[in-house]
Amino acid sequence: MATEEKVAISGATESSMYLYPEGINLYMGKATGMLTRVGHSPTLNTVLMVEELLSKAGEPVTVAELRKRLPKQVMRPTLMKVLDYLQESGKILITTKGIVWIFAPRPEIEAMKRRGVQL
To answer: Model pTM greater than 0.70?
Structure first.
């Protein structure tokens, strides 16, 4: 059963997602500023592990195949939250054939990072 935690967040909308090193927090509620935390959050390490595997796959990967390929066991609900986050952030596409990595970093942004340009 999902754990619930009520919090007051300024500027909160109907649903909000926050990524922290200790996990992704998903809050849902009305636009009253009081949101309810929904369920367990995957850790940043889990998100990075899934990102790395998908970015190197080179072909569509099913959820079952992805779970088998991951170096650590990840529970299905946790994996589904990671996939939802990656899809919302534009890094993956979930198709009928599987999950495909679509994110391509922009070369000019990467060049700015190397030069140390402050944005």
So the answer is: no
